[in-house]
Amino acid sequence: MDPPGGPRRGAVVTETPDNGLLPSLQTLAGDRFDPAAVDPRIDDFYAHTAAWRLELWSQWTAWAWPFGWALSTLFSRRLRQLSLPLRGLDTSRGVDSRVLVVDSPAGERHGAAWLRELRATGEAVFSGWYGTVTLPGSDQPRVRVVFPLPNGSLTVLLRPAASTTGGLRLVSPLGGFGDDGAYLVVRADDEVRAWVRRIPLHERFEVFVDDEGVLRTDHALHLWRIPVLALHYRMARRRP
């Protein structure tokens, strides 16, 4: 997977069992988010994502299940992208996870590609490009996730916050163009211009350590204010 905009000249791509989506949560430090308020185990997950094993459960709302079936059947399996699980058995064997880090020759981080496949079926759940971005007029970095699509991408900007119990919250809320949220980007034929539109897809991630010391994530997707899909992850550090 190439970075958005094409491969970087002289870029160095590495894949190790210890790669992370971010160098650390410190890259998100800003006027509205203090990484020190987050449990260190959550920081370890983002800094060493490939070292964690993922288990996944999913639940579609009744009205959205036909949409999920159409997305998976008509598009996701062909594109190997956004193949969201429809049945519990799809995720019964867990999720395989790979992280490829792309650096400049000088060691500057360009971003990381996170590839997740259902172990039971081999289908790609998500293939995304992860990094950070600071919007104009703001001093608070965001998580930027880019999902490559034919002739464009789906780009999601997620606002970080710390919960009162040491968890991490990432949200793409309702808002206007230029705010945090989801954007569909379609490249023009000249590969220079692009058509961009904000779409009413909103996400909320709650990353937390439960009472038994287990790292978990609740991921909710809404269309406008209507619930569509809930994903629950259980993460466990692999033994050396």
Description of the structure:
The protein is mainly beta and 240 residues long. The protein has one domain (12-237). Helices cover 10% and strands 46% of the residues. It is built from two helices and 13 strands, in the order βαβαβββββββββββ. The radius of gyration is 17 Å and the shape is globular.
Topology:
Elements: E1 12-15, H1 40-47, E2 52-60, H2 65-79, E3 95-103, E4 109-118, E5 124-134, E6 141-149, E7 152-162, E8 168-172, E9 181-187, E10 194-199, E11 201-209, E12 215-223, E13 226-237
Antiparallel strand pairs: 1-3, 2-13, 3-4, 4-5, 5-6, 6-7, 7-8, 7-9, 8-11, 9-10, 11-12, 12-13
N-to-C CA distance: 28 Å
State the share of residues found in helices, binned by percent: under 10%
Mean pLDDT: 83
Order of helices and strands: EHEHEEEEEEEEEEE
Number of strands: 13
- What is the number of domains? 1
- Low-confidence blocks of residues: none
Output the structural class.
mainly beta
Number of helices: 2
Globally, the shape reads: globular
Strand content: over 45%
Radius of gyration: 17 Å
Largest sheet report: 13 strands, antiparallel
Key phrases:
13-stranded antiparallel β-sheet, mainly beta, 240 residues, 2 helices
Task: Give a concise summary.
With 240 residues, the chain is mainly beta. Helix content is 10%, strand content 46%. It has helices spanning 40-47, 65-79; strands at residues 12-15, 52-60, 95-103, 109-118, 124-134, 141-149, 152-162, 168-172, 181-187, 194-199, 201-209, 215-223, 226-237.
